[in-house]
């Protein structure tokens, strides 16, 4: 089995945010497969310069119920370490929670612990998603509202790979498979030319 020639730089998870690669199963796509990826490529996004703290110590918690309180989240995530900052994001117009939060721990190892253990925990009847903050860690980051993000669900029609939920699959091409494809293309060309 011969691995794809691009494998020298291949990583299981994204190290830089490229919407086209993030929308790909193995990170090698050259054409976008959905409108969200096109929207992310065309959008401009500048990280919030007012965000404080260390991104290595900050986790992103999403898919929260609108019933989940700040106090409950704080209590739940305190068991992984001492929390330095906590922000439950709310809509500026309605004041209602948007379903996600950012938690900064004092120690990087505590953020790592929360990342490993809190993901897929059921909170107020919803399975939460926990990942590291990407806005400041991944160059070129685009949030989900602009067509970016990670870990889309099949039902939403926005598949995303390269994130926590769906790491890239290693691209490979079998030598025999390459020869077979080449043979089929040549056969198809011959048939097409005879039909014309």
From TrEMBL:
The cross-references to InterPro entries, in alphabetical order and at most eight, read: Nucleotide-bd_a/b_plait_sf (IPR012677), RBD_domain_sf (IPR035979), RRM_dom (IPR000504), U1_U11-U12_snRNP_70-35kDa (IPR051183)
ATP-binding in keyword set: no
Q: Where is the RRM domain?
A: 57-135
Q: Name one GO molecular function term.
A: mRNA binding
SUPFAM superfamilies, per the entry: RNA-binding domain, RBD
Q: Among the entry's GO cellular component annotations, what is one? A: precatalytic spliceosome
- List the subcellular locations: Nucleus
Major subcellular site? nucleus
Give a Pfam family name: RRM_1
Q: Which domain of life is it from?
A: Eukaryota
| Protein name as it appears in the record | U11/U12 small nuclear ribonucleoprotein 35 kDa protein
The protein's organism comes out as: Henosepilachna vigintioctopunctata
């Amino acid at each position: 089995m011969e691995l794809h020639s691009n494998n020298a730089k291949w990583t299981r998870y994204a190290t830089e945010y490229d919407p086209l690669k993030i929308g790909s199963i193995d990170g090698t796509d050259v054409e976008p497969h959905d409108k969200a990826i096109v929207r992310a490529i065309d959008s401009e996004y500048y990280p919030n310069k007012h965000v404080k703290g260390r991104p290595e110590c900050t986790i992103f918690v999403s898919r929260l119920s609108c019933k989940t309180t700040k106090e409950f989240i704080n209590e739940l995530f305190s068991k992984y370490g001492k929390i330095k900052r906590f922000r439950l994001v709310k809509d500026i117009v309605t004041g209602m929670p948007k379903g996600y939060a950012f938690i900064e721990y004092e120690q990087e190892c505590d953020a790592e612990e929360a990342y490993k253990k809190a993901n897929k925990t059921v909170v107020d009847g919803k399975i939460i998603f926990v990942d590291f903050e990407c806005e400041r860690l991944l160059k070129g980051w685009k949030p989900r509202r602009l067509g970016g993000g990670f870990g889309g669900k099949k039902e939403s029609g926005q598949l995303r790979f390269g994130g926590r939920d769906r790491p890239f699959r290693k691209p490979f091409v079998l030598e025999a498979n390459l020869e077979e494809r080449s043979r089929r293309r040549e056969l198809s060309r011959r048939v097409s030319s005879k039909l014309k």
